Amino acid sequence: MNSGDASMDAHTPVVLELLVQEAPPGRFEELLWTARQDDLTAAQFGRLEHAVRLALEVRAAADQRRRREASLASLVATARDLAYQPDLDSLLNVITGHSRRLLDFDMAYVSLRLPQGGSYVHRSDGETTALSEGLSLGQGLGLGEQAQGRQAPFWTSDYLTDDRFPHSAEIDAVVGAEGLRAILAVPMTHGDVVVGALYGAARQRRHFTPDEVGLLRSFADMAAAAIEATRRADRLRAELADAREAAARTDTALACTRLVARTQSEFADRVLGGAEPHDIVRAVGDALDGTLVLRDASGQILACTGELPRLDEAVAVKALVDSHAAGAPIAVTDTVWATHVTTGVAGPCVLLFQARSPLTEEGRQLLYSTGQAVALVLLLRHSVSAAAGPARDEYLDDLLASTPQSSRRLSARARRLGIDPAGRHVVVVLRPEGGRQGEAAVWASSYAYRHGGLKTVSGELLVLLLPGTDASAAARAASNELSPLLGHAVSAGAAGPAQDLVSVGKLYQEARRCLDTLIALGGIGGTASASDLGFLGLLLSDERDAGAFITSAVGAVIDYDTQRGTDLVQTLEAYFTSGGSPTRAAQQLHVHTNTVSRRLDRITELLGPDWQQPGGALEIQLALRLHRARGAVYPGTER
After folding, report:
1. Residue 123 or 296, more confident
2. DSSP letters along 337-383, please?
């Protein structure tokens, strides 16, 4: 292997390491810059450059997934409302209301399929006339019919001037009366059944992004499942009435139906109650009398109730793809069924089921619903923007306020919010240097929730109150997580720990001062607490802990003198007063120059090789003066 190949091999693994570390793009550029200095041929450098470009594309895709989490959080939040509606009319009211708010539409409405073809507008929200509800949409006419026929979203930025689809005079009249222009229609499908269409409309021209279209499509799928579940419940009630007349013939089927209905109704409670995927899988495995296995596309098993016959990887991946395309469970073998588990924010998974007896239609529906329930659980794991509610934000705002507050009342509120009032806490103030405050605020909610703390937003700053005693470490950890997410530097100031909740406001002001000082010193993208800023921190801190500063700067030297009876502190003082000259210091101390040199070598061992650099030397001199002053004012405090 020539030197170029060796250099190529040395650089290539670094690309993967940077990708795993979620390093910022600048690190990849540094790698290329370093590679240019090595003896690489043009082809070798081209391969390395190609690897870096692919890594950056993977990283960009990860950032895009994170951005989608914020949008999907509001989608998941609607699951509770969809799950607890008593009838179809109430359910459709919830669907149109949430659709309108989800993407900031002026109007939203739902059309349901008619048995003989075509559809009609069943419910609307945001209308200004009484013309929309009950409007008959002839077969093949309008956006909704196009979306249902193609089973794909269909939209227009200006409905009345768009000639890509057939118009009808009745529909155009309602659109004109409502003043609608941009309209997005997505099909509502459940399995292979087209339930209807969900519409979002704006009264100005509007171009819908792929993410907006995908978000409404996801909500439409959830709505279709809820509509079908409501209709299925109506059908079950009718079947139960008939079953009273033919109990002997329907006992077995009725028992199965009740089991399916009961298990499906429990999904919402389990999901919203914080269930994990294995909880859902275990419950349904027992209900269906079979073995369930949840695995990802790479073959890793995430949850299971037992072992399945070994499947070829290609067969398992194909089952995932086919199930997603069909929107329903599919048979993989004579006894094994598969249904997809897709969230849109994480890699796809597949739910494999081996039945001990033939799988009924109700069983297939339950298996499909199980996949949806597991997907919701996985979505809830990602939906962290709602973790810290308004009450928690308001509480932290009150802690940061400068007005006097009752310690007892603050403690009582803290307990209600799950915060230990007697615990130690630090304050971290973060400033994203490249904007994207919205994404940063969503991240802050997640971070505070995961670490048992609180967050709030103050202008362009994020404020975190976190359990702990090391303010510097807390600032570094938060900045290191947020910076790769936003793709730019995040500066952070920190203070603490707080002795009690009443002192949080003072710590917040100190953290702000540390952040401002950091920025003023050109430390954008860095982190700092008072202890990190040396003598500047001593001035910035409300505590003015001179002892801690002395210990940090020259404590090792003072301790050495105390334990061994040496004169290193005196030697340091003489060294600085003589302008850094060992010879003049020796004259001042009345010792040989070699003695001073040996003492300076020992000091270097204790303080490190950089103690004579300008910044370190300044702090050491200040610490020595404070140490001598403390000894004069408070005799006996010398160490």
Report:
1. 123
2. EEEEE--SSS--EEEEEEESSPPPHHHHHHHHHHHHHHHHHHHHHH-
Give the number of other CB atoms < 10 A from CB of residue 422: 8
Strands 425-432 and 490-498: antiparallel
3-class secondary structure, 69: helix
C-alpha 231/C-alpha 278 separation (Å) is 29
Cβ-contact 575, 585 below 8 angstroms = yes
- CA 484 from centroid of its chain's CA atoms: 12
Mapped onto helix, strand or coil, the DSSP state of residue 553 is: helix
Q: Looking up tokens 């502190």, which residue turns up?
A: 569
Among candidates 84, 17, 22, 75, which has minimal Cα distance to 376?
75
| Residue 636 pLDDT class (50, 70, 90 cuts) | low
Residue 198 backbone class (left: φ over 0; alpha: ψ -120 to 50; beta: rest): beta
What is the C-alpha to C-alpha distance for residues 291 and 335, in angstroms, rounded to an integer?
A: 10
69 burial via Cβ count (<10 Å: 0-12, 13-18, 19+): buried
pLDDT-based confidence at 118, cuts 50/70/90?
confident
List the structure tokens of 552: 């940090």
User: Cα(126)–Cα(100) distance, rounded to whole angstroms?
Assistant: 8
Quote the CA–CA distance of 353 and 281 in Å, as a whole number.
10
Average of pLDDT values for 285-295? 78
Nearest-CA neighbor of 596 among 614, 609, 578? 578
What's the CA gap between 178 and 163, in Å, rounded? 20
pLDDT band at 205 (very low <50, low <70, confident <90, very high): very high
Between CA 609 and CA 208 the distance in angstroms is 61
Which runs of consecutive H residues, i.e. helices, occur in 103-209?
142-150, 169-178
Three-class SS state of 9:
helix
- On whether the CB atoms of residues 639 and 558 are closer than 8 A, the answer is yes
Q: Which of 121-135, 341-355, 400-414 has the highest mean pLDDT?
A: 121-135
- pLDDT of 11 reads 62
- Residue pair 353/343 in contact (Cβ under 8 Å)? The answer is no
Q: In what order do the strands lie in the sheet with 454-458?
A: 454-458, 461-467, 425-432, 490-498, 527-528
Kindly state the helix (H) or strand (E) to which residue 156 belongs, with its residue range: strand 154-156
Q: Is the separation of the CB atoms in 499 and 506 below 8 Å? A: no
Say if residues 15 and 31 touch (Cβ distance below 8 Å).
yes
| CA distance linking residue 382 with residue 466, whole number of Å | 21
Give whole-number Cα distances, 423 to 86, 92, 276, 409, in Å.
Answer: 45, 47, 30, 16
Mean pLDDT of 496-507: 82
Q: What is the mean pLDDT of the chain?
A: 78
Across the range 238-243, mean pLDDT stands at 79
Helix (H/G/I), strand (E/B), else coil: 389:
coil
Least confidently predicted of 98-107, 286-295, 453-462, 521-530: 521-530
| Helices 88-102 + 210-243 axis angle, to 10 | 170
Could you give the residue ranges of the DSSP H alpha helices within 289-344? 313-326
What are the tens digits of pLDDT across the range 392-446? 778 877 888 766 667 777 777 777 777 887 888 899 999 888 766 777 777 787 7
Instruction: Give the bridge partners for 336, in sequence order.
Output: 354
